[in-house]
Target: Chromo domain-containing protein
Amino acid sequence: MFALRRLPPKASLLSTGLLFEFSFAAMLSRTPWRALERTRSGRWTSAPPTSKTKKICNLLTNINTTDIMANREIEYLVRHRVNRQESTVKFLVEWTDDTPRSWEAEEYLQTIDPKALYSYWEERGGRDHVTLLVEFHVYKVKSKGWKRGEWAYNCQWVGCPPDQNTWEPEDKILSNAPAAVADWEAREAARQARVEARNAGKK
Model:
């Protein structure tokens, strides 16, 4: 994720344990076993791969961690904590199954249960009011359009519902959130392929 300043709407994964963290880090690396070599401080190291980490890597890359994590259900959000240095929020989550409580990234919770996340903030007077954060992270690019004489992306923000989306200049988002743009382009390509397939079937 990349931080961006977001104007108020009227004015204008990530971790659930090593499996999920590895999956996210591996996507960013041409040598995913390096993602598995993790220091105690939590940063991914570029240490030379060992036979053990390569073996584990081969096993983990065949697991669809997104599906595994998406099946978890939230009982309720206990409390939150704010990392002001990174402008991020984590939540202590009570799960519906026997899984112990765990601290989870806001972006992850927005993916698996956005209603629970939005309700949590709404009940407390709103995310901006509670966290006092002034930097926001792009959660998802929703569309692209011509706005005020330039190309712009319609962005949804981490922790914020769709009705708080804002249009941001193309160069700004490309520079600060290239992964979000790439994800949108992939979704658009898939959508276009489905449209073309349907049209071809009608001929």
In short: Residues 136-203 form a domain with the OB fold (Dihydrolipoamide Acetyltransferase, E2P) fold (CATH 2.40.50.40).
